[in-house]
Amino acid sequence: MTRLRYRNFCCLIVVLALSSDGFTQGNSTTVPFKKTLIPSETQVLILRWDDQAKSGQLPKFAELDQAEAGAIKIVRSAENPQSIPIATIKRPSIRQRAYMLRGAVKYEGVLGDGFLEMWNHFPEPRAVSAFTRTMATNGPMGLIQGDSPWREFQLPFMINDDSFPSPEKLEVNVFLPKAGTIWISDLELIEFPISHMMPATPAASMPATPAASFARWATWSWIFVTVFAGLGCAVGVLGTTLWFKRVRNKQDTELRRMQSLNIE
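Above: the chain's sequence. Below: its structure in token form.
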């Protein structure tokens, strides 16, 4: 009997260890994905779709799918691209300079390159916005394309400039270029020391900071303005030169005609 109890106890320990090893629990079943844990992470909030449904605040085009652990399901049959808002988090209590929105995503028949994005809106005196998108080729920040079982997604953000305040609002959207079906689990917002920020794929994160966003935008805008202004000036000078040359040729032709008349 003692040996049987010991074996049952060991089995229980193994089951508990497996069920608590970084797996996100749903309300009825478990979404089968393993989330990446970050050192010194602190949970800021969890957005549960069950609660959103009870308060009548489910996203447009979305329905609650209890068969998928209370995830939301979005089905699109249109062939035109569309950005679908799924969540708005106002005045999140973020104290650290690095934070991340994460969860799980599953999809079927997604045509083209879709992605999840998080817009970070900062208040005065800066009043700028910047985004992070899942546009990497693979991993938690990978694109949404084709078919995929449940997998983790991450939308990290880092503020290098200490003069920037915490964001006043976070907006989360899913972009689908064409038809497809997508499931999205409950969303978890965490924060952690900036020293533990994992390197993001450049194509997936734009920008690292709001200041960098504005600087990059200003730099490229200045480059484009300079290039187009230079081209415009070149075209203008060329056009003016050709016009003067045409007028001069007409004058020379008329002068030669008059000279020939005087000779006769």
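The domain at 2-208 is CATH 2.60.120 (Jelly Rolls).
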